[in-house]
Amino acid sequence: MLLGPRRVGKSVEVKRTIENMITAGTDPRSIAHMSVDGFSSHDLVAFIRTAGRLMPQEGLRWWFIDEITSVSGGWPAQIKWLRDNDARFCRDTVVLTGSSSSNLRESTGELAGRRGPASDPDRLLLPIGFRTFLRLTHHDLKLEQLESSPRLSVTDLTPSRLSEAAYHLVPWLHILADAWEDYLRVGGFPQAIANHIRHQQPDDSLRIALKGVISGDAFQQSRLSELQTSEMLHRLARGLGSPYNVTHLAREIGVSPPTARRRIDDLRESFVAWPVYRERNLRPLLRAQEKIYFTDPVYTHLSDPASEPRIGPMDETALSEQQLAVALWRNIAWQHRGSHTRFDRVLYYRSDTGAEIDFVGPDLGTLAIESKYVDGRWRRNTGRTMAASRWWGIIATRTELNLDNLELSAIPASMLASLIDD
Predict the structure, then answer these.
(1) Distance between CA 391 and CA 382 in Å, rounded?
(2) Is the dihedral of CA 79, 84, 87, 92 positive or negative?
């Protein structure tokens, strides 16, 4: 399974894989590819049977089936039946892409024991990370030190390792800082980056398409009006970094709290938004209010009716915090395959007095990360909170770099992201 939000490039990755297979000598007739968006489960079976008659009668086959999570009528049961009853199909390699994690849970139960020898069969494709964004948008610059430095795992963020890696990047700090602010504005969708490189302006067509995806795909079972959908996205975007109150959100958009909760779940299951839970003993405290982040900055620009038809401004401080959260999520998912739908690895801390630290978690160990997209105006309150906690801290600043204090280090958010993101 290859999962990820709509328009992120899953189909392109599938086609690139097919191209590489054919270049390497695979018989093209042994490969079947189809986008099944809008199919019924019976259409899906008809496609597999029809394509099977056109493929070689001997040897292994490869099936690439795009957007299977949009198939109606219970597609996991049909794939299960084929794996159980078609002696040839059960030996084939089957790659399924989709845009819904709820369908992943459904398929996991149905297809248990029918996924072959792959020990790690699920992959998540998110919008492009900062490191790749930097390479794409600054390809004319020779960033040798950045290109040659390996991506660090969050478990490698010890004071000594962080100091060594960061100081090697100091000559490029001004480039990193400018590129980070571009990234916060443009995001990581391939279409948005291409438009930024060509025209140096936001991509309105992508924004309109993604808003349509949310209304017609993520919210396909809801009765929210377009205005209610816009207002909901607006409220979530303006509340980035703060625990949200579902009852208050429901009141603001004129629905019941259970309806608001279901729409939040719809966004999560479509990889548009994701939760960061409050921790207790480095485990998610599910009864406490969670924070909601979007998986890309472009989603925060879909929301404000006053910004039509242009994209309105968004707080860089909140966006920097969000994209650091996504970088951590992506880094940990890279280390722990399958963790991307559990949301139990990136958490936030809140003390009994209400003091908060943005990011802690089992993979960060004794490290906590606080996003403060400023220079210098964080020491008193943040220092006190960190000192009272059980962690040593990293403050993700705008451009300030100070790694001399082993208990509380400051590093620009752009530098930190370039070290841990892809």
Answers:
(1) 12
(2) positive
Quote the pTM value.
0.90
Which of 351, 368, 364, 361 lies closest to 408 in space, CA to CA? 368
**Kind of pairing, strands 347-350 and 273-280?**
parallel
**Could you report how far apart the first and last alpha carbons of the chain are, in Å?**
21
**Nearest alpha-carbon partner for 369 in 343, 391, 388, 402:** 391
- 124 - beta bridge partners? 3
Helix, strand and coil percent figures for the chain, each rounded to 5: 50, 15, 35
Residues 6+ apart with CB under 8 A from 360: 279, 282, 347, 348, 349, 367, 368, 369, 391
Beta strands 273-280 and 283-284 are: antiparallel
CA atoms of 274 and 267, how far apart (whole Å) = 8
pLDDT in tens, 322-333: 999 999 999 998
Cis amide bond preceding 190, omega within 30 = no
Q: What pLDDT score was predicted for residue 311?
A: 42
Q: Are 357 and 368 in contact (CB under 8 A)?
A: yes
Amino acid residing at 378: W
